Amino acid sequence: MLWANSDDLTGRGVWRIPGVQWLGDRSYSVYLWHWPLLLAASTLFEGHIVATVGAVLVTLALSEVTYRQVEQRFRFRASSPRATTSGRAPTRAVGVLVVATMVTGAGGLLLAAPRDDGTLTPPLAEATDDRFMEFYDGDCRPGIPDTDPLTCTYGDPQGSTRVLVVGDSHAVMWMPGLIAAGEGQGWRVDLQAKLSCAPIGVDIDLRGNPYTACAQWGRNVLHGIEVDPPDVVVLAMNPGYHIIGHEGEPSLALADALRSTVQQIRAAGPQVVLMGVTPRFPDSVPECLAAAADNPEDCQVTLPDAIPQNHWDSVTAGIDGAHVLDLTDIFCPDGACLTNADGILRWMDSNHMTATFARTLAPELRRHLTAVLNST
């Protein structure tokens, strides 16, 4: 814009093109109309190019109407003799503005209605907030450079059984279910979690660089377990980490490092429960369900591809007191990994459970952990 207003006449010539000036005059009306119309084209016609072009043309047509009937009438009514002697022009302008607002609002409601019919808990629009906010909004969430394990305690602080949950965001997502599982059981449930960090004590890749703070955090967690061992350690983590300096299959290297962690924990005394890898969807489940309201089955994934590659079974193989808790049968009955069931939205994004769904798993978690605790 600065260049076009300079003394360079070649640049100023661009702005003299009639179409450019016409669009510039109507730019605010275009701004008001374009988004709901493009959203409608994207949602109702799956972004087909013809629908998108049509939405642009309708935008320009409606912009012309609102430009002439609203903008111009309000801007120049004070200096227009007709405007000062007759109330009809402002009235017509207000009428057009009201109709335009009603059409835009109705279109938004029409789009929103099939996207979330209110039958799911949590509703699709609130899915991303349905997580263990006690961690995300609390004071035991370490930052990226932090190496000291921060512990939050839930359940019965004076409980006779101490369960320590360790890992990344995949450990955090189990907390609502684990806390509910321990109700009435005398369980104290502690959480030590660090986002995007595997508790394995070796350097993993973080945006192309060694995540040394994560490795030190993992070593500090293990030291704390040795000093003050709980009854059982629940490990949960994303299986997609890459260990720095290891050639070959990344999932094998990760499994080897995790096995070393399990061995060190067992040497300190606690039982170990490694949570099985949960399904991963190609897209955010709430967003997919919103876009595929008529065919929600399109958002499901199927076994075995739904489970990210891992070697969790090899992590605990041959280690007495180490167990894998795999709930794939609940996540994916008959091989289809469900996005929702019994009115409950199961996933808040592509790979993290909603807190609501995690709480429904409490009876199963209680049964498995009780069996582990009784085996000591």
Structure in words:
Helices cover 47% and strands 12% of the residues. The protein is built from 16 helices and 12 strands. The chain has helices at residues 9-14, 18-25, 27-44, 49-76, 81-85, 88-115, 133-136, 169-172, 175-181, 212-227, 250-268, 285-291, 312-316, 328-331, 355-360, 362-374; strands spanning 152-155, 161-167, 187-193, 205-206, 209-210, 232-236, 271-275, 301-302, 322-325, 336-337, 340-341, 344-345. The strands form 4 sheets. Strands 1-3-2-6-7-9 form a 6-stranded mixed β-sheet, with helices on both faces. Strands 4-5 form a two-stranded antiparallel ribbon. Strands 8-10 form a two-stranded antiparallel ribbon. α4 (49-76) packs antiparallel against α6 (88-115), α9 (175-181) crosses α16 (362-374) and α10 runs parallel beside α11 (250-268). It starts with 8 loop residues before the first helix and ends with a helix.
Helical percentage: 40-55%
**Structure summary, number of beta strands:** 12
Structural class: alpha/beta
Beta-strand percent range: 5-15%
Amino- and carboxy-terminal Cα gap: 75 Å
Low-confidence stretches: 109-117
Following the backbone from N to C, one meets helices and strands in this order, namely HHHHHHHEEHHEEEHEHEHEHEHEEEHH
Q: Identify the overall geometry.
A: elongated
Give the gist of this structure.
The chain contains 16 helices and twelve strands. The protein has 376 residues and is of the alpha/beta class.
Give the secondary structure arrangement, pairings included.
Blueprint: H1 9-14, H2 18-25, H3 27-44, H4 49-76, H5 81-85, H6 88-115, H7 133-136, E1 152-155, E2 161-167, H8 169-172, H9 175-181, E3 187-193, E4 205-206, E5 209-210, H10 212-227, E6 232-236, H11 250-268, E7 271-275, H12 285-291, E8 301-302, H13 312-316, E9 322-325, H14 328-331, E10 336-337, E11 340-341, E12 344-345, H15 355-360, H16 362-374
Parallel strand pairs: 2-3, 2-6, 6-7, 7-9
Antiparallel strand pairs: 1-3, 4-5, 8-10, 11-12
Helix pairs in contact: 3-4, 3-6, 4-6, 9-16, 10-11
